[in-house]
Protein backbone atom coordinates (compact mmCIF):
# COMPACT_ATOMS: atom_id res chain seq x y z
CA UNK A 1 0.00 0.00 0.00
CA UNK A 2 1.25 3.48 -0.89
CA UNK A 3 2.55 5.57 2.01
CA UNK A 4 0.67 8.64 3.25
CA UNK A 5 3.32 10.79 1.59
CA UNK A 6 2.77 9.12 -1.82
CA UNK A 7 -1.01 9.22 -1.46
CA UNK A 8 -0.75 12.93 -0.63
CA UNK A 9 1.25 13.58 -3.82
CA UNK A 10 -1.31 11.64 -5.91
CA UNK A 11 -4.18 13.49 -4.27
CA UNK A 12 -2.58 16.91 -4.90
CA UNK A 13 -1.85 15.97 -8.51
CA UNK A 14 -5.45 14.83 -9.07
CA UNK A 15 -6.68 18.15 -7.70
CA UNK A 16 -4.25 19.99 -9.98
CA UNK A 17 -2.48 21.54 -6.98
CA UNK A 18 1.22 22.02 -7.56
CA UNK A 19 3.00 21.64 -4.22
CA UNK A 20 6.34 20.28 -3.07
CA UNK A 21 6.09 18.28 0.16
CA UNK A 22 9.18 18.13 2.35
CA UNK A 23 10.09 15.37 4.83
CA UNK A 24 11.43 16.35 8.23
CA UNK A 25 13.04 13.43 10.12
CA UNK A 26 12.63 15.34 13.40
CA UNK A 27 8.84 15.00 12.99
CA UNK A 28 5.97 17.43 12.40
CA UNK A 29 3.22 15.72 14.41
CA UNK A 30 2.05 18.88 16.20
CA UNK A 31 1.99 22.51 15.10
CA UNK A 32 4.88 23.29 17.45
CA UNK A 33 6.94 20.36 16.08
CA UNK A 34 6.16 21.42 12.51
CA UNK A 35 7.09 25.08 13.11
CA UNK A 36 10.38 24.02 14.72
CA UNK A 37 11.19 21.63 11.85
CA UNK A 38 10.25 24.06 9.08
CA UNK A 39 11.70 27.12 10.84
CA UNK A 40 8.55 29.24 10.56
CA UNK A 41 6.12 30.90 12.96
CA UNK A 42 3.74 28.48 14.68
CA UNK A 43 0.90 30.67 13.34
CA UNK A 44 1.91 29.67 9.79
CA UNK A 45 1.20 25.99 10.46
CA UNK A 46 -2.18 24.78 9.20
CA UNK A 47 -3.90 22.40 11.62
CA UNK A 48 -6.41 20.34 9.60
CA UNK A 49 -8.89 19.57 12.35
CA UNK A 50 -11.90 17.34 11.77
CA UNK A 51 -15.02 17.97 13.86
CA UNK A 52 -18.18 15.90 14.10
CA UNK A 53 -21.70 17.25 14.27
CA UNK A 54 -24.62 14.87 14.96
CA UNK A 55 -25.16 14.63 11.19
CA UNK A 56 -21.86 15.21 9.42
CA UNK A 57 -18.13 15.90 9.61
CA UNK A 58 -16.58 19.31 8.99
CA UNK A 59 -13.00 20.57 8.74
CA UNK A 60 -11.52 23.63 10.44
CA UNK A 61 -8.18 24.69 8.92
CA UNK A 62 -6.78 26.44 11.95
CA UNK A 63 -3.64 28.49 12.52
CA UNK A 64 -1.14 26.68 14.74
CA UNK A 65 -1.25 29.71 17.05
CA UNK A 66 -4.99 29.30 17.70
CA UNK A 67 -7.50 26.87 19.16
CA UNK A 68 -10.99 26.38 17.73
CA UNK A 69 -13.87 28.19 19.39
CA UNK A 70 -16.31 25.28 19.06
CA UNK A 71 -19.36 27.51 19.73
CA UNK A 72 -18.41 29.70 16.80
CA UNK A 73 -17.59 26.72 14.52
CA UNK A 74 -20.93 25.20 15.55
CA UNK A 75 -22.70 28.39 14.46
CA UNK A 76 -20.94 28.17 11.08
CA UNK A 77 -21.78 24.45 10.72
CA UNK A 78 -25.36 24.99 11.89
CA UNK A 79 -25.01 22.25 14.51
CA UNK A 80 -23.03 21.55 17.65
CA UNK A 81 -19.49 20.32 16.90
CA UNK A 82 -16.96 18.24 18.82
CA UNK A 83 -13.48 17.01 17.86
CA UNK A 84 -13.77 13.79 15.83
CA UNK A 85 -12.09 10.67 17.21
CA UNK A 86 -8.96 9.33 15.45
CA UNK A 87 -10.76 6.44 13.69
CA UNK A 88 -13.39 8.80 12.31
CA UNK A 89 -10.66 11.15 11.06
CA UNK A 90 -8.86 8.31 9.28
CA UNK A 91 -12.08 6.96 7.78
CA UNK A 92 -13.21 10.34 6.46
CA UNK A 93 -9.91 11.72 5.21
CA UNK A 94 -7.85 8.60 4.53
CA UNK A 95 -5.08 9.98 6.76
CA UNK A 96 -4.18 9.62 10.43
CA UNK A 97 -4.17 12.50 12.90
CA UNK A 98 -0.85 14.32 12.66
CA UNK A 99 -0.73 13.87 8.89
CA UNK A 100 -4.26 14.90 7.89
CA UNK A 101 -4.38 16.89 4.66
CA UNK A 102 -6.23 20.18 4.35
CA UNK A 103 -7.88 19.00 1.09
CA UNK A 104 -8.27 15.90 -1.09
CA UNK A 105 -10.19 13.95 1.57
CA UNK A 106 -11.92 10.67 0.71
CA UNK A 107 -15.29 12.37 1.10
CA UNK A 108 -15.50 16.11 0.38
CA UNK A 109 -16.12 17.79 3.73
CA UNK A 110 -17.49 21.27 4.43
CA UNK A 111 -14.38 23.28 5.31
CA UNK A 112 -13.69 26.63 6.98
CA UNK A 113 -10.31 28.37 7.19
CA UNK A 114 -9.10 30.52 10.08
CA UNK A 115 -8.79 34.08 8.76
CA UNK A 116 -5.50 34.49 10.66
CA UNK A 117 -3.84 32.14 8.14
CA UNK A 118 -4.67 34.53 5.30
CA UNK A 119 -2.30 37.16 6.70
CA UNK A 120 0.78 35.12 5.79
CA UNK A 121 2.48 34.92 2.38
CA UNK A 122 3.06 31.19 2.86
CA UNK A 123 1.58 28.63 5.25
CA UNK A 124 2.59 24.99 5.86
CA UNK A 125 0.20 22.03 6.05
CA UNK A 126 0.58 18.30 6.71
CA UNK A 127 1.44 16.18 3.67
CA UNK A 128 -0.07 12.85 4.73
CA UNK A 129 2.41 11.78 7.41
CA UNK A 130 3.49 13.07 10.84
CA UNK A 131 6.92 13.93 9.40
CA UNK A 132 6.07 15.95 6.30
CA UNK A 133 4.69 19.36 5.40
CA UNK A 134 4.23 21.40 2.26
CA UNK A 135 4.27 25.17 1.73
CA UNK A 136 1.34 26.85 0.00
CA UNK A 137 0.04 30.39 -0.47
CA UNK A 138 -3.16 30.88 1.55
CA UNK A 139 -5.16 31.86 -1.56
CA UNK A 140 -4.10 28.60 -3.24
CA UNK A 141 -5.05 26.66 -0.09
CA UNK A 142 -8.50 28.31 -0.13
CA UNK A 143 -8.94 27.39 -3.80
CA UNK A 144 -7.78 23.77 -3.37
CA UNK A 145 -9.80 23.08 -0.21
CA UNK A 146 -12.90 25.10 -1.12
CA UNK A 147 -12.67 26.49 2.41
CA UNK A 148 -14.69 29.48 3.52
CA UNK A 149 -12.63 32.08 5.44
CA UNK A 150 -14.14 32.69 8.88
CA UNK A 151 -13.32 33.90 12.37
CA UNK A 152 -13.66 30.83 14.62
CA UNK A 153 -10.29 31.19 16.37
CA UNK A 154 -9.76 31.18 20.08
CA UNK A 155 -6.57 33.21 20.30
CA UNK A 156 -5.55 31.75 23.63
CA UNK A 157 -1.89 32.71 23.66
CA UNK A 158 -2.41 36.38 22.98
CA UNK A 159 -5.50 36.65 25.21
CA UNK A 160 -3.53 34.95 27.96
CA UNK A 161 -0.62 37.39 27.58
CA UNK A 162 -3.06 40.32 27.54
CA UNK A 163 -4.69 39.12 30.75
CA UNK A 164 -1.26 38.58 32.35
CA UNK A 165 -0.26 42.13 31.50
CA UNK A 166 -3.47 43.55 32.99
CA UNK A 167 -3.09 41.41 36.13
CA UNK A 168 0.56 42.28 36.58
CA UNK A 169 0.65 45.98 35.77
CA UNK A 170 2.29 47.85 38.66
CA UNK A 171 -0.35 49.61 40.69
CA UNK A 172 -0.21 52.84 42.66
CA UNK A 173 2.25 54.55 40.42
CA UNK A 174 1.55 58.25 40.44
CA UNK A 175 2.01 59.37 36.92
CA UNK A 176 2.62 63.11 37.02
CA UNK A 177 0.55 64.22 34.11
CA UNK A 178 0.12 67.95 33.54
CA UNK A 179 -3.38 69.28 34.16
CA UNK A 180 -3.50 70.78 30.75
CA UNK A 181 -1.23 71.11 27.79
CA UNK A 182 0.76 74.22 27.39
CA UNK A 183 -0.58 76.22 24.51
CA UNK A 184 1.32 75.41 21.33
CA UNK A 185 3.92 77.96 20.55
CA UNK A 186 3.27 79.72 17.34
CA UNK A 187 5.82 78.84 14.77
CA UNK A 188 6.34 80.99 11.79
CA UNK A 189 7.36 78.89 8.85
CA UNK A 190 8.49 81.97 7.04
CA UNK A 191 10.82 83.00 9.83
CA UNK A 192 11.72 86.59 10.42
CA UNK A 193 10.24 88.83 13.13
N1 LIG B 1 1.37 17.67 11.29
C1 LIG B 1 0.81 18.67 12.17
C2 LIG B 1 1.04 20.08 11.66
S1 LIG B 1 0.61 20.32 10.02
C3 LIG B 1 -0.64 18.37 12.34
O1 LIG B 1 -1.21 17.55 11.66
N2 LIG B 1 -1.23 19.08 13.29
S2 LIG B 1 -2.78 18.95 13.59
O2 LIG B 1 -3.04 19.94 14.60
O3 LIG B 1 -3.58 19.05 12.43
O4 LIG B 1 -2.97 17.53 14.13
C4 LIG B 1 -2.84 17.26 15.46
C5 LIG B 1 -4.20 17.57 16.06
O5 LIG B 1 -4.95 16.40 16.14
C6 LIG B 1 -4.14 18.12 17.46
O6 LIG B 1 -4.06 19.52 17.45
C7 LIG B 1 -5.42 17.64 18.09
O7 LIG B 1 -6.43 18.64 17.98
C8 LIG B 1 -5.83 16.51 17.21
N3 LIG B 1 -5.79 15.29 18.01
C9 LIG B 1 -4.73 14.77 18.64
N4 LIG B 1 -5.11 13.66 19.29
C10 LIG B 1 -6.42 13.48 19.05
C11 LIG B 1 -7.39 12.51 19.43
N5 LIG B 1 -7.07 11.49 20.20
N6 LIG B 1 -8.64 12.65 18.98
C12 LIG B 1 -8.96 13.67 18.19
N7 LIG B 1 -8.09 14.62 17.80
C13 LIG B 1 -6.84 14.53 18.25
Structure described in brief:
The protein is of the alpha/beta class and 193 residues long.
Can you characterise this structure?
- The chain has 193 residues and is α/β, with parallel strands linked by helices.
- It has one domain: YbaK/aminoacyl-tRNA synthetase-associated domain (YbaK protein, Alpha-Beta Complex), CATH 3.90.960.
- Helices cover 30% and strands 21% of the residues.
- The chain contains 6 helices and 10 strands; from the N terminus they run αβαβββαβαβββαββα.
- It has helices at residues 4-15, 31-38, 70-77, 86-93, 138-145, 156-168; strands at 22-23, 45-52, 57-63, 67-68, 82-83, 110-114, 123-126, 132-136, 148-150, 153-154.
- The strands form 2 sheets. Strands 1, 2, 3, 5, 6, 7, 8 and 9 form an 8-stranded mixed beta sheet that branches. A two-stranded antiparallel sheet has the order 4-10.
- β7 (123-126) and β8 (132-136) form a beta hairpin.
- The protein is globular and about 50 Å long.
- 5'-O-(N-(L-cysteinyl)-sulfamoyl)adenosine is lined by residues 28-31, 34, 45-49, 83, 85-86, 97-98, 100, 125-126, 130, 133.
Record keyword descriptors for this entry.
193 residues, alpha/beta, YbaK protein, eight-stranded mixed sheet, 10 strands, 21% strand, globular, disordered C terminus, binds 5'-O-(N-(L-cysteinyl)-sulfamoyl)adenosine
Number of strands: 10
Instruction: Give the number of domains.
Output: 1
Amount of helix: 25-40%
Q: For the record, what is the CATH homologous superfamily label?
A: YbaK/aminoacyl-tRNA synthetase-associated domain
Q: What is the number of helices? A: 6
Radius of gyration from CA coordinates: 23 Å
CATH topology: YbaK protein
Principal-axis shape: globular
**What would you call the structural class?**
alpha/beta
Order of helices and strands: HEHEEEHEHEEEHEEH
Please indicate the percent range of residues in DSSP E strands (runs of 2 or more). Answer: 15-25%
- Measure the end-to-end span: 90 Å
Bound ligand species: 5'-O-(N-(L-cysteinyl)-sulfamoyl)adenosine
Query: Which blocks of ≥5 consecutive residues have pLDDT under 50?
Result: 181-193
The name of the CATH architecture is Alpha-Beta Complex
Average of the residue pLDDT scores: 87
Describe the sheet with the most strands: 8 strands, mixed
CATH class wording? Alpha Beta
